[in-house]
Design a protein that fits this description.
three-stranded antiparallel sheet; globular; 2 domains; 434 Repressor (Amino-terminal Domain); Jelly Rolls; 211 residues; alpha+beta
């Protein structure tokens, strides 16, 4: 029953994400092709995201936020909070769930925009590098702390690291990387990323607009 409710909530969040991207694009007066160019995402992918036919990866969410001059939280929230003394609580399994091919993300403390860190509870799904596909990389730094299961972290310049429950790793996100589930059960990590990537993309787009 709990899984059914979670899947229903995840589907609704994905649908709301597609609507939110569409609305933000319209508010900015951008065509889908213009947003594709600003965010460095293909036109076909933008169209599929807005029509709820494609669930964007974390990297794509960063690029979308940059292309729309907004924070990642704004892609999920219509009324983000930006007070001076900030606090946000996410109760167990009540974050925004976002499903991609290799990872199931639960966005934590997402009611606050322009955080310096982006915390995620993430389920690692791919069992092999071949199943995972191309490694991904983006600006910033990240920390992974294994909550349960066993994972193998592959990075561009280092040998793979096998991590068990309670282990953690910190690395430069610009190195292309991939996480693989090496256990028979679900592997979950607390994944904390710096949010400089979306900020940098926003600054790049502002410079382009000035030119």
């Amino acid at each position: 029953m709990k899984n059914g409710k979670r899947n229903s909530r995840t589907s609704e969040v994905t649908r709301q994400l597609s609507l939110r991207v569409h609305d933000l694009r319209k508010e900015k007066g951008l065509s889908q092709r213009e947003l594709a160019q600003r965010s460095n995402i293909s036109f076909s992918a933008i169209s599929k995201i807005e029509n709820n036919q494609l669930s964007p990866t974390y990297d794509s969410l960063i690029r979308l936020a940059g292309g729309l001059d907004c924070d990642i939280a704004d892609l999920f929230n219509r009324t983000p909070q930006v007070p001076m003394g900030r606090k946000c609580v996410t109760h167990n399994r009540m974050g925004y769930h976002h499903i991609t091919k290799n990872y199931d993300y639960e966005l934590l403390c997402n009611d606050i925009s322009y955080k310096k860190m982006i915390p995620l509870r993430t389920t690692i799904k791919a069992k092999t590098i071949r199943e995972f596909g191309d490694f991904t990389g983006h600006e910033g730094e990240e920390l992974l702390f294994v909550l349960c299961g066993v994972i193998e972290v592959h990075t561009e310049f280092y040998q793979p690291e096998l991590l068990h429950e309670g282990d953690c790793i910190y690395f430069d996100s610009t190195m292309k990387h991939a996480c693989i589930n090496k256990s028979d059960k679900d592997a979950e990590v607390l994944w904390v990323c710096t949010s400089t990537a979306s900020i940098n993309l926003e600054e790049e787009n502002k410079k382009k607009s000035v030119r």
